[in-house]
Specification:
Helix content is 50%, strand content 14%. It has a 5-stranded parallel β-sheet. The termini are close together.
Length: 159
């Protein structure tokens, strides 16, 4: 399965992330690695900006930076686990998605949909912690927006 994740993932690596966030990150990564799925990441994107910013920001805090470095090495730089997509590879979004992105304050989330546009063989799935984003796009068939806790409930039990 190909997955698009937003910035919750880099945020959950931060040393000040809550214990619940750290457990969710650990559960996601363990299930992800066990299943052999891939994440799709737009280059450049807010996701990449944050993960590399935190790697630099916490470089002197070994316990904080080690998991970030492991993620970068094991997943982000591994072509079997991560597909880095350039802006030239994304396809034009359907008009209904463009319209919904223009409503309210969703323009900053357009990169998630652009990233999902390259997914071909499986359902487009964006994993988020943003309930407002999920609710705004809940009736869309082009792409499924799934809240992290709901995703983990099924993802880690469907092996």
């Amino acid at each position: 399965m190909d997955l698009v994740v937003n910035e919750w993932l880099p945020e959950y690596f931060r040393p000040d992330a809550s214990p619940e966030e750290k457990r969710a990150l650990e559960k996601f990564l363990l299930c992800f690695l066990e299943r052999g799925d891939k994440i799709i990441v737009l280059k450049p994107s807010p996701f990449l900006y944050k993960i590399y910013r935190y790697a630099k920001e916490f470089q002197r805090q070994y316990e904080a930076v080690l998991p970030i470095r492991n993620f970068i090495k094991t997943i982000l730089l591994n072509s079997e686990r991560c597909i880095l997509v350039s802006a030239e590879e994304i396809e034009e979004l359907p008009q209904n998605i463009q319209n919904k992105l223009a409503e309210g304050n969703y323009g900053s989330d357009s990169y998630l949909f652009e990233t999902a546009s390259v997914i071909r063989d499986s359902a487009r799935k964006i994993i988020t912690t943003d309930t407002r984003l999920k609710n705004h796009f809940q009736d869309e068939e082009w792409c499924e927006i799934v809240l992290l806790h709901e995703f983990l409930d099924s993802y880690c039990n469907d092996t």
